[in-house]
Design a protein that fits this description.
- With 248 residues, the chain is of the alpha+beta class.
- 30% of the residues lie in helices and 23% in strands.
- The protein has a domain of 165 residues: PK beta-barrel domain-like (M1 Pyruvate Kinase, Domain 3), CATH 2.40.33.20.
- It is built from seven helices and twelve strands.
- Helix 6 runs antiparallel to helix 7.
- The longest helix is centred in the N-terminal third of the chain and has 21 residues.
- The radius of gyration is 22 Å and the shape is globular.
- The N terminus is likely disordered.
């Protein structure tokens, strides 16, 4: 028998308390790993492609210090073709830095500086299959909402000098995603990315990409996506049409 002062006293709530504490510690550790690695901006430039002049802003360069984020873009950044780029729902483009090692292996002959995919934010610890449309984030003093995946245009192929680059990016599911600016503010490399609100249901960015590519006939997923109010109207209309076509 152990002396009373050395005996472990079991309390029914102790396990729950310890389990809750462990979950909180795990969450805190996960959040601490989510951060902004680089802030990248670029202005429109004109380049010659097969004898034609193309205007593009896909070349981005990292900047130091605090950068102001407005409703439509970052200071020092500007979209070229506003018919397909920019706007409130696509004000900021985020790309996970974890994907760079994948592309380094896929494209060993290509230099891959941060910003190579035309992203404004190169970020660590925030992946497409883990984040849902409608999730709200705080970075620095600015606040954002996740709106949609990036569907690249032909200019990505120009940036990499590869005609198959758009197809490869979509097939890889490593698309990155767009953010709407809920509150203007300032950001800087090294800022933590905090979740203000995390959707418990809805659809992830990866699921949206799947619906656009490999899982286009998934009626249940189409229905869920069409009901996500944070998803831009054009996307919801597109999914509703696919849904109605599938029910004919």
């Amino acid at each position: 028998m152990c002396p009373d002062d050395l005996r472990v006293r079991f309390h029914p709530g102790a396990v729950l308390v310890r389990r809750d504490l462990a979950n909180r510690v795990h969450l805190a550790l996960a959040i601490s790993l989510v951060k902004l690695i680089s802030v990248n901006v670029g202005l429109p430039r004109e380049i010659n492609v097969n004898g034609k002049t193309v205007r593009t802003s896909i070349w981005k360069n990292p900047v130091q210090g605090r950068v102001h984020v407005s409703t439509l873009n970052l200071d020092g950044d500007q979209q070229s073709d506003l018919t397909v780029h920019g706007g409130v729902d696509k004000a900021v483009y985020l790309y996970p830095t974890e994907h760079y090692s994948y592309w380094a292996a896929e494209l060993p002959e290509v230099e891959l500086p941060l910003g190579a995919f035309g992203e404004n934010f190169s970020a660590e610890g925030i992946l497409e299959d883990q984040i849902r449309v409608g999730d709200r984030l705080r970075i620095g003093s600015a606040e954002f909402m996740v709106t949609q995946p990036r569907l690249p245009c032909y200019k990505l192929g120009i940036r990499f000098d590869r005609r198959d680059m758009v197809k490869r990016l979509l097939q890889s599911k490593r698309t990155g995603f767009y953010l709407a600016v809920l509150r203007e503010g300032e950001v800087e490399e090294g800022d933590e990315i905090e979740w203000m609100e995390k959707q418990e249901s809805g659809v992830t960015i990866t699921e949206i990409v799947n619906l656009y590519s490999t899982d286009s006939q998934n009626q249940e997923l189409l229905r869920r996506a069409s009901e996500v109010m944070a998803l831009p109207q054009s996307w919801r209309d597109y999914f509703r049409k696919r849904l109605s076509d599938g029910e004919v």
